[in-house]
TrEMBL record, chain A:
<dbReference type="GO" id="GO:0046872">
    <property type="term" value="F:metal ion binding"/>
</dbReference>
<dbReference type="Pfam" id="PF04060">
    <property type="entry name" value="FeS"/>
</dbReference>
<feature type="domain" description="4Fe-4S ferredoxin-type">
    <location>
        <begin position="133"/>
        <end position="162"/>
    </location>
</feature>
<dbReference type="InterPro" id="IPR017896">
    <property type="entry name" value="4Fe4S_Fe-S-bd"/>
</dbReference>
<feature type="binding site">
    <location>
        <position position="70"/>
    </location>
    <ligand>
        <name>[4Fe-4S] cluster 1</name>
    </ligand>
</feature>
<keyword id="KW-0479">Metal-binding</keyword>
<dbReference type="GO" id="GO:0009055">
    <property type="term" value="F:electron transfer activity"/>
</dbReference>
TrEMBL record, chain B:
<feature type="modified residue" description="FMN phosphoryl threonine">
    <location>
        <position position="172"/>
    </location>
</feature>
<keyword id="KW-0597">Phosphoprotein</keyword>
<comment type="function">
    <text>Part of a membrane-bound complex that couples electron transfer with translocation of ions across the membrane.</text>
</comment>
<feature type="transmembrane region" description="Helical">
    <location>
        <begin position="123"/>
        <end position="143"/>
    </location>
</feature>
<comment type="similarity">
    <text>Belongs to the NqrB/RnfD family.</text>
</comment>
<feature type="transmembrane region" description="Helical">
    <location>
        <begin position="67"/>
        <end position="87"/>
    </location>
</feature>
<feature type="transmembrane region" description="Helical">
    <location>
        <begin position="305"/>
        <end position="323"/>
    </location>
</feature>
Automatic annotation (TrEMBL), chain C:
<feature type="coiled-coil region">
    <location>
        <begin position="543"/>
        <end position="595"/>
    </location>
</feature>
<keyword id="KW-1278">Translocase</keyword>
<protein>
    <recommendedName>
        <fullName>Ion-translocating oxidoreductase complex subunit C</fullName>
        <ecNumber>7.-.-.-</ecNumber>
    </recommendedName>
</protein>
<keyword id="KW-0175">Coiled coil</keyword>
<keyword id="KW-0472">Membrane</keyword>
<feature type="binding site">
    <location>
        <position position="418"/>
    </location>
    <ligand>
        <name>[4Fe-4S] cluster 2</name>
    </ligand>
</feature>
<dbReference type="InterPro" id="IPR037225">
    <property type="entry name" value="Nuo51_FMN-bd_sf"/>
</dbReference>
């Protein structure tokens, strides 16, 4: 009887010490989950989720907000977030917009009046220009957030889909025979090209 | 539009050709079983084939899969024939039907059908039957001398065996030797007419016939040598290292040439869907099965051990795969485990 | 011939893993001698016929060019120039059909041949050995030479970027793809020129030996090379490798003839080897010695739908259709036209596409010959693919990963080491289009990496911008505070000064100073207005423009209002602004016309 109690006590002490040690030794620093979430978000900084940029939304998700408010990321981002946070993926919340093909903003330069409104709106400083000077978009830096379209007083900014080039084109995922059955088909996000 | 991708030419190989060749290679063994033991094997084979195809078609229909396309691939046929070779020949008909149904349903389609099953379907059914109906599975073996003719066999199988007991024997040579050696010496045990100089009467030619079929498969490159060689090798090695004393353990010749050893080595363990994939992985996988067969036969309660050995190693196959990837051209070392640690 | 034995040695051959033996189909096209295709009327030369940056056009539409003249200059870094394959007139520089699976059109230069085939001035170098390495390399670069084996890598780069001392020039004469016999015929007919090209390369590399890797199904070509070596008194080592696909892959051939593997991420030069295709060596000879840039190549045209299969010397830029017609192809019988061999080639979406520097074969098979893919069954993990893989991958595992877009897992299985040779798909009993899966996954992987990089950049830019805005806000705040303080100080000083007796000086009187400044400003404005005064015509133009814009804006506004668009407010603002502009422009115009009427001068 006494031995049993003693044994249990000793075991409890040992394991307790181990747990205590581990909690100090392997303490995670900061709140890495926000960084992880932010890494998954597409960094479009479009604000369609209702937050001023991707990082604030990442913080909001970490605080328990829904993961389905990011139209530029679409299903793929939702899936990745669901995997990371171990929650059920949800369909994209239509309230915040729908998933579109990647786009880039183009200024019709002869119509630009040089008002700098779009420059102020661009979240990633991808528009070049100064007051009374023609503006232009640095395409490689444009995230396609379309925040610059609305402020333009003369409506000279177009959102154009990014076209395939030889460098970006790649083969589609083959549809196998068995996937001819509707329920077996991959979800649209897994294979955007197939849907197109 | 579907993109046509290279290569534009393929070999003539198809899944159904692979499966049908496998079935053809089973025939010498099946014939030997029929000739040396019982017509029951033939009846089993027919029953199992019909059941397998019917169940397969039914489930494909329910799962809304193209029925004919999958029936043609012959995988159900392979499962059926393997079961027919493995189940006791004089068991009642419903045992075969039940076993085949279990194999197709639980072994294959509940996991997603062809190519998705983590376990060998025939062995799943065999294990289920052995656990659920141990008596029928251990007492309905046929004796070597073929005392029951075709008509009698049909009667035994379809009308219940209790009325006609001729030709029934409870124990296979492996079982008999293990039971007897605890009381007798090797010499006394081997007096029993079921044994012969090498192996056991009937079982030795049957195993040689399966070996022949297996060699044909090897020659046609439908299977690789890795699994059979490592399986037989590890079984033989353990038998020599541990069980060389014939007065205490089943001798090597019986291990190799009786029971379902060759069937397991060439036809069951090599089932690609549930086996390990890389060459090194196959060696480990086969050796594992061989070792488990020896362990279960020697210290376990079951007379033969193929089903459990194969199923246990099926469990281990994905793990083996993760740690036995071959070294890729130009790499310094193989990538192991579940995470890429190279970068 | 006792000399021969000392000149020609047979080299040891190692083995590669996997490999397959598809039907060779070489005899259809390797019996007839190489035949030149007559000059076509129009040639289309894509600017991007090589790996690397596209060339930049240096000609304009309407310009006459001579044969061999550079029409597009290599565009810096890894790139190759494009030359006029014949003399004629440039008729267009625009997007044209291009031999690529995507079917995307690519910029190209069109030349209308004048039929004279008039060469530019050529300066042959019979004494190339007296030239410096730099001169030779420049000549190769200017000749627009790219690897003719299929990949199309600019050749001079191979000689410029060397990490280790080069010991061996490996001549790739394996030609393992079924059907293709362009190299085979070239070796049989022009072995000496090939070896002369090899001598130039040997000289450039400072290498010790020439090693030729050739499959044992080309004995005639091997003999021709041996004879050429005797004639030229050139020492060669011949490694006759067993016929097995894909022995002609650069890495595979190196493994076959040296037993060594090119390290991951490395180049053959890390092993002291430079590998060159026979066609490329031949072209190096033509360019260096005869000053002929890369304007034509040998292309195999074969397949059951072709009535005269064989090898043709084709000008780069000739349309595939022309070539096929010349070889007597029944395009109705042909199921598709494949550029390259049946194992690694691709179906050309549009045969108006021109022959490129890398077009080693046009294959027009009938449906019976190369049947379209049959329905695939699920993978049964039979492992045949793994036995066939020449780089020891596990294609069945990669297939699972690719199919379900598990890119991390695909990477784990070294997807990127796949050479897309197609051996796995060839042996697959389930007929799974494995290569297509792998190429899909590779593309996705690349895209994902790029997206990640882009989003990373966007994140940094966003954060920098946030920081800048914050800083500006603080600076503004600081300035405002400073101003307020300054104002307070000034106020205090003023108070103090008012208390003190006035100096009486004009300069110190703020009121007078302000008045003077205002007067000066007024004068300046009047002067500048006179200088900028525009002519009525200009003003009219501005007025019209403003009016058009205003009209457009107001119609848009009406539309938006009708639709209840969210943009109404913004549009209204814009319309108001434009109206204002329009009115002011009108005023200016009227004022100008009036002043003109009153002022007859």
């Amino acid at each position: 009887m006494i031995t049993a109690i003693l044994t249990l006590l000793v075991l409890a002490a040992i394991f307790g010490a181990l747990l205590g040690f581990a909690s100090i030794r392997f303490k995670p620093e900061g709140n890495p989950i926000v960084e992880d979430i932010n890494n998954i978000l597409p960094q479009t900084q479009c604000g369609q989720c209702g937050h001023p940029g991707c990082r604030p939304y990442a913080q909001a998700i970490a605080d328990g907000e829904d993961i389905n408010k990011c139209p530029p990321g679409g299903e793929a981002t939702i899936q990745a977030l669901a995997d990371l946070l171990d929650v059920e993926p949800k369909p994209l919340d239509a309230e915040h917009g729908e998933e579109k093909t990647p786009q880039v903003a183009i200024i019709r330069e002869d119509e630009c009046i040089g008002c700098t409104k779009c420059i102020q709106a661009c979240p990633v400083d991808a528009i070049l220009g100064a007051a009374k000077q023609m503006h232009t978009v640095i395409e490689s830096e444009c995230t396609g957030c379309d925040l610059c379209v609305e402020p333009c007083p003369v409506d000279c900014i177009d959102m154009v889909p990014i076209e395939d080039t030889l460098a970006t084109w790649h083969q589609n995922r083959p549809l196998s025979n068995i996937e001819l059955i509707a329920t077996d088909r991959p979800t649209p996000a897994v294979n955007k090209e197939d849907a197109a | 539009m579907m993109t046509l991708s290279s290569p534009h030419t393929t070999g003539s190989n198809t899944v159904s050709r692979l499966m049908l060749t496998l079935c053809a290679a089973l025939i010498p063994g099946l014939l030997a079983l029929i000739v040396f033991f019982s017509w029951g094997y033939l009846i089993n084979a027919i029953l199992a084939t019909v059941t397998a195809l019917a169940v397969e078609a039914l489930i494909l229909k329910i799962r809304k899969r193209p029925v004919l396309f999958f029936l043609k691939d012959g995988s159900a046929l392979v499962t059926a024939l393997l079961l027919a070779c493995a189940l006791p020949p004089l068991a009642p008909w419903w045992l075969i039907v039940l076993g085949t149904t279990l194999a197709i349903l639980f072994g294959k389609h509940l996991f997603g059908g062809l190519g998705q099953n983590p376990f060998n379907p025939a062995m799943v059914a065999y294990a289920l039957l052995l656990v659920s109906l141990p008596l029928l599975m251990t007492t309905r073996w046929a004796a070597v001398d073929q005392s029951a003719d075709f008509g009698q066999t049909v009667t035994i199988i379809f009308q219940g065996g209790q009325t006609v007991l001729d030709g029934l024997t409870g124990a296979t040579p492996l079982d008999d030797y293990k039971q007897s050696i605890s009381r007798l010496t090797a010499e006394d045990v081997l007096v029993n007419p079921i044994y012969q100089t090498i192996g056991a009467v009937g079982w030795t030619p049957v195993n040689l016939a399966f070996l022949l079929g297996g060699l044909v498969l090897l020659g046609l490159r439908i299977i690789t040598w890795h699994i059979p060689v490592s399986l037989l090798g590890s079984l033989a090695l353990l038998s020599i290292l541990i069980g060389s004393d014939a007065d205490a353990f089943v001798p090597l010749s019986l291990h190799l040439l009786s029971g379902s050893t060759m069937l397991a080595a060439f036809f069951i363990a090599t089932d690609p869907v549930s086996a390990a994939t890389s060459n090194r992985g196959k060696l480990i996988y086969g050796a594992g099965i061989g070792a488990l067969i020896y362990i279960i036969r020697t210290w376990g309660n079951y007379p033969d051990a193929t089903a459990f050995a194969v199923l246990l190693m099926n469990f281990a196959a994905p793990l083996i795969d993760h740690y036995t990837r071959p070294r890729v051209y130009g790499h310094k070392a193989a990538v192991k485990g579940y995470k890429n640690e190279q970068d | 011939m006792t000399v021969a034995s000392s000149l020609i040695t047979r080299s040891r051959v190692w083995s590669i893993s996997g490999g397959i033996h598809p039907a060779e189909h070489k005899q259809e096209s390797n019996t007839a001698p190489i035949e030149a295709i007559p000059l076509p009327s129009t040639l289309w030369l894509p600017l991007n016929m090589h790996i690397g940056a596209p060339a930049t056009p240096v000609v304009s539409v309407g310009q006459m060019v001579r044969k061999g003249q550079i029409i597009a200059q290599s565009g810096g870094g890894i790139s190759a120039s494009v030359h006029a394959p014949t003399s004629g007139r440039i008729t267009a520089i625009e997007d044209h059909a291009y031999a690529h699976e995507s079917g995307l059109k690519q910029p190209a230069i069109a030349i209308e041949a004048d039929g004279l085939d008039d060469w530019r001035k050529q300066t042959p170098w019979e004494d190339w050995a007296s030239k410096t390495h730099e001169e030779l390399l420049q000549r190769i670069h200017d000749g627009g030479i790219t690897g003719l084996g299929g990949a199309g890598f600019p050749t001079d780069i191979k000689y410029r970027n060397r990490h280790a001392p080069i010991d061996t020039l490996l001549i790739n004469a394996a030609e393992c793809e079924p059907y293709i016999t362009a190299d085979d015929r070239l070796m049989r007919e022009r072995a000496e020129d090939i070896l002369r090209g090899a001598q130039i390369c040997l000289h450039l590399l400072g290498a010790r030996r020439i090693l030729i890797g050739i499959e044992d199904n080309k004995p005639e070509a091997a003999t021709a090379l041996e004879q050429a070596a005797e004639t030229l008194q050139q020492r060669i080592e011949l490694a006759v490798v067993p016929t097995k696909y894909p022995s002609g892959g650069e890495k595979q051939l190196i493994q076959l003839v040296t037993g060594k593997e090119v390290p991951k991420g490395g180049l053959p030069s890390d092993l002291g080897i430079v590998c060159q295709n026979v066609g490329t060596l031949y072209q190096i000879y033509r360019t260096v010695v005869h000053d002929e840039p890369l304007i034509s190549r040998i292309t195999t045209v074969t397949g059951a739908a072709v009535s005269n299969p064989g090898n043709y010397e084709v000008l780069i830029g000739t349309s595939m259709e022309t070539v096929l017609n010349h070889a007597g192809a029944h395009l109705k019988k042909a199921d598709r036209v494949i550029m390259g061999g049946p194992m690694m080639g691709f179906a050309v979406p549009d045969i108006a596409a021109p022959i490129m520097k890398s077009t080693n074969c046009l294959l027009a098979p009938t449906k019976k010959e190369l049947p379209p893919a049959i329905e695939d069954s699920p993978c049964i993990r039979c492992g045949l693919c793994e036995q066939a893989c020449p780089v020891d991958l596990l294609p069945q595992q990669m297939h699972w990963a690719s199919k379900h877009r598990e890119l991390e897992s695909a990477e784990l299985h070294s997807l990127e080491d796949c050479i897309e040779c197609g051996a796995c798909a060839y042996v697959c009993p389930s007929r799974i289009p494995l290569v297509q899966y792998f190429r899909y996954a590779k593309g996705e992987l690349k895209q994902e990496r790029q997206q990640h990089e882009e989003s990373e950049r966007a994140r940094i830019r966003f954060e920098n911008r946030q920081a800048r805005l914050e800083r500006e806000k603080q600076e503004k705040e600081a300035r405002r505070k400073a101003r307020a303080e300054a104002a307070a100080k000034a106020q205090a000083e003023k108070k103090a000064r008012e208390g003190a007796p006035s100096s009486g000086s004009n300069d110190d009187d703020p009121v007078k100073a302000a008045l003077a400044r205002a007067a000066a400003k007024k004068q300046a404005r009047a002067e500048s207005a006179a200088a900028v005064e525009q002519s009525p015509a200009e003003l009219k133009e501005a007025l019209d423009k403003a009016k058009a814009k205003f009209d457009k804006a107001s119609t848009r506004l009406q539309e938006a209002e009708a639709n209840g668009d969210a943009m109404v407010a913004a549009l209204k603002k814009a319309a108001d602004k434009l109206e204002e502009k329009y009115l002011s422009a009108e005023k200016a115009y009227q004022a100008a016309t009036q002043s003109q009427e009153t002022d007859p001068s």
